[in-house]
Amino acid sequence: MTAGKAMDEIFRREAGRVLATLIRLLGDFDRAEEARQDAFAAAIEQWPCAGIPANPRAWLVSAGRNKAVDRVRRDAIYQSKVLHLERASAEADARVFIDEEDEAAFGDDRLRLIFTCCHPALGSDAQIALTLREVCGLTTQAVSRAFLVSEDTMAQRLVRAKKKIREAGIPYETPPPELLDERIDGVLAVIYSVFTEGYAVTSGTDLMNEALCDEAIRLGRLVDVLLPRNPAITGLLALVLLHDARRRARVSDAGNLILLEHQNRGLWNQAQIAEGLALVEDSLRLPGRVSPYSVQAAIAALHVRAPDNDSTDWRQIVGLYEVLLRLQPTPVIELNHAVAVSMVDGPRSALDLVESLAARGEMKDYHLLNAVRGSLLHRLKRTAEAREAYLRALAEAKVEPERRLIAARIAQIDAG
Known about the structure:
The chain is built from 20 helices and no strands.
């Protein structure tokens, strides 16, 4: 691996951790983002000559912190803050050089940052959006696509959320045990959003961002240790493990998307499946309210238990989606329910559900809605309408593997 590629890999791997630590040290999102950018610029300038340091993350954190102190020192208005930052820097020196064992014992700055972003003073959408932007490093454009809103709307939402954290003095910490329960729903929603963005990215040339999938699973395990035997946490961990178990079978060697029904099930990670199935059973047996994550995990379990697509218990999957819709009525779950209905009652019944969903306008510009419409219309031999739906889906899709699959469907129709 060349030095340039090694540096790119380090930047990708450490960007989130460096930012999280800088936010803890500097106490401000915007100043930490500037400091990280300065640290990366310094690394690009110095590492090719001096060599990559043994602990790149610690080097980047120290460089970013020092750059931030320099910025503040140059502005006389903030001289009082210099003293605070310098004291914080001295106190933090010993804590910057952390290893994985320390992080497993909740010295994890990203977990603290997630709890900060998920403070109940922020709305649920703001919590998820802020975490995707600040913890996972997604662009504002990518976050806006995940929420099906404009980039300007999302940028304003993020600015307001950071301002509220700053003005309310929300602490950067994992909350004490008595406050964990009121924060956990937001944290789980964020972890699942991180996984979803990794498993099916909203834009780009690759179908998946495996680093985000790994990070979501790691954070899920940390929270499970923090609050053991919580049905929602257990259900979420089961869900992400069962989905992630199919990772290697979802993309061909050429980088093309392989749908579930065509995947080589021999490539599925059986160890993850076994762990996930056990966690599903645990989450459904634990006392307390049934969690939507547990229901989704039960659906995923039916898929991975089936030896092939034809053997899948679609009728039970439809029933579980109906339970899920009562617990968490969202347009995406409605669309998934319609797909399952098509496997039990046929495409006509499912198309009625999809058309009703489309008429409400909640999924405008969502490519999967038109992709599903195209598939159902094609099965009904309404090929001209199917082609039109696929063309709309192609115009809306932002991920190249999905675009290639949709284009192949259009070519199939054109070929008769």
